Amino acid sequence: MKNDDLLMQIMMLDFAVQDSALFIDTHPCDKEAMNYFNEAATRLKAAKKEYQKQGHALVNREVGAYQNDYLSAPWPWVGDHKCGCTKNVCNTL
User: Fold this and answer.
1) Do the beta carbons of residue 43 and residue 52 sit within 8 Å?
2) What is the reported pTM?
């Protein structure tokens, strides 16, 4: 999977985990919601592990000697890259 696609998947899964956690706060007995949360959390953990295995950092605290593309990689708003969920059409630069 391409790095941009994997990063987008991480963002979507992170949202799913956060959103389902909020739902479970108000519906603690909902087994379907708990299953959804657990599946999304498992997939998120695997996606993050794969992204980091490819040598990319998700946050600046994870930058190590082998993850030097944090500063040298193109910024999200440059070129064909996506800036979060924003499509290129919305980019101003």
Assistant:
1) no
2) 0.69
